[in-house]
Design brief:
51% of the residues lie in helices and 11% in strands. By secondary structure, the chain is α/β, with parallel strands linked by helices. Helix 2 packs antiparallel against helix 5.
Length: 478
């Protein structure tokens, strides 16, 4: 097996995307602190704008009594804040400092409110001049408050506070210049360095980065890393933002932000926004749904077990070692669909039937399959015991399908990306293929990566529903 697979065999915590919950909590805490701070200051600025408007003697009441007026103002402020959020003005980086966009968004909010007042309110209840004055004050105060926050943060960072630890990956000759670059940007503290010429031989590099609890990694020479997509996915799964100098960069994702480190532009490849939340939602859904299905399918389990026992001698279940999350081996469970000597006779069948590039062996009319096994495979009923793998946390309902370890040994390095998430009972490839013998590993991995990048609970449900339709409509699995 390749050196990459040995990296994968390191046992990290069981998680969909991020192996370190402590780092995850830190990043989530940073995000929420920023969001709450900006929200409180924006709301305070908007409240002041209305209070100042009222102090000039302008009628302030949208409705007849004071309680309704306060409710209306609260609704207006909520609307203003929602528009700001829709323009991503609470995100990290330069977006929250886009004062032109802030002014434009608040102006649009007041124009919409002015239109509502013009068409639906009696002019005696509120003067249009009040809204104009409030709009000017809102833009001025919100921008001023945010600018004050930036000045305060810059002063704190000058004193060494509110900085993000960043890990450096570069050539030895570039180390000093890279550290100077980081020193010129007060947002970051240098947390560690590794020589990029040794990174491909050192399995411990990723563990060093994890232990450093860094939020960002600066890669000074991206072209020096072999298996770039795999390295990129592993860092993203750890909740790490990746900064890459825009030289010889092979783009590995479409959503790339241009960010500056000091005066030098870099590409930022961001981590997933809700890493641990994704995992918890997915795991809870998997556990509850799997338990419910097991209880519902008890009669089917008993009937299938009886038919297998009648059809051929041997055990009811078949178990086999498969590679799971981060390369950890687990035993996958199935209903037995082959004769008891199937593993011993596999080698001769491989060469007498369909064998593609020495991997992922499947064949039609396999003589080892029993009569009841053909029926079970046709409707994928042999996979039902894997619900217990799901309950135990070794598999997910949806994810890349695990293949036998003997086939994994034939994988190229880039194919190991699929082992950065829990393997699934079904996946995007299973519901996308047009027939059962068109398995091309590169296409499969591309679909696996697409699933990892676009995961949502809705996508899982969509794949599960599509799986039912595919199983009932296809001619059969081998």
């Amino acid at each position: 097996m390749t050196s990459t697979s040995s990296v994968l065999s390191d046992r990290y915590a069981r998680d969909l995307r991020a192996p370190l919950f402590s780092q995850l909590g830190k990043r989530i805490g940073q995000r929420w602190r920023r969001l709450i701070t900006l929200l409180l200051f924006d709301i305070f600025a908007l409240l002041i704008s209305w209070q100042v408007t009222a102090s000039f003697g302008e009628p302030f009441y949208l409705l007849n009594d004071n309680k309704d007026s306060l409710l209306a103002i609260a609704t207006i402020i909520a609307f203003q804040v929602s528009l700001l959020a829709s323009q991503e003005l609470y995100q990290a980086g330069d977006k929250r400092r886009d004062y032109i966009n802030i002014a434009k968004t608040l102006t649009i909010a007041h124009l919409l409110l002015l239109s509502v007042v013009f068409f639906f309110q009696d002019s005696r209840n509120i003067l249009h001049q009040s809204l104009i004055l409030s709009g000017v004050l809102s833009v001025t105060l919100v921008c001023s408050f945010r600018y004050s926050i930036d000045i305060a943060i810059d002063n704190l960072r000058e004193q060494g506070f509110l900085r993000y630890p960043i890990y450096l990956i570069s050539k030895l000759e570039d180390k000093n210049s890279a550290i100077k670059l980081l020193d010129s940007d007060r947002r970051y503290d240098f947390a560690g360095w590794v020589d990029i010429t040794t990174i491909n031989e050192r399995d411990s590099v990723l563990q060093d980065i994890y232990r450093s609890k860094v939020s960002d990694v600066l890669i000074y020479s991206w072209e020096g890393i072999t298996s770039q997509p795999l390295f990129y996915i592993k860092l993203k799964n750890a909740g790490v933002n990746i900064h890459v100098l825009p030289t010889a960069l092979q783009v590995v994702e479409q959503k790339i932000k241009l960010r500056f480190l000091g005066s030098i532009p870099t590409f930022e490849l961001s981590s997933y926004l809700t890493i641990g939340g994704d995992f918890l939602i997915k795991r809870c859904f998997d556990f509850i749904f799997a338990i419910a299905l097991i209880l519902l399918l008890i009669p089917a389990y008993l009937l299938i077990a009886l038919l297998i026992a009648i059809d051929s001698s041997g055990s009811i279940f078949y178990k086999q070692n498969r590679m799971g999350l981060h390369g950890k081996t687990f035993q996958i469970w199935k209903f037995r669909t082959m004769k008891t000597d199937a593993d011993r006779s596999q080698k001769s069948v491989e060469f007498s039937h369909q064998w593609k590039d020495g991997a992922l062996f499947q064949t039609k009319n396999d003589p080892r399959i029993t009569r009841i096994g053909k029926f079970l495979r046709r409707y994928s009923l042999d996979e039902l015991p894997q619900l217990f793998n799901v309950v135990c946390g070794e598999m997910s309902l949806v994810g890349p399908r695990p293949v036998p370890n003997s086939d994994v040994e034939k994988f190229a390095d880039r194919h190991f990306i699929r082992y950065q998430v829990l393997p699934g009972m079904t996946g995007l490839w299973q519901v996308s293929r047009s027939n059962t013998d068109d398995y091309e590993i590169d296409k499969v991995v591309n679909l696996d990566v697409k699933y990892m990048e676009n995961w949502s609970l809705g996508l899982d449900i969509q794949i599960l529903l599509k799986t039912i339709a595919v199983v009932l409509g296809r001619k059969g699995a081998y």
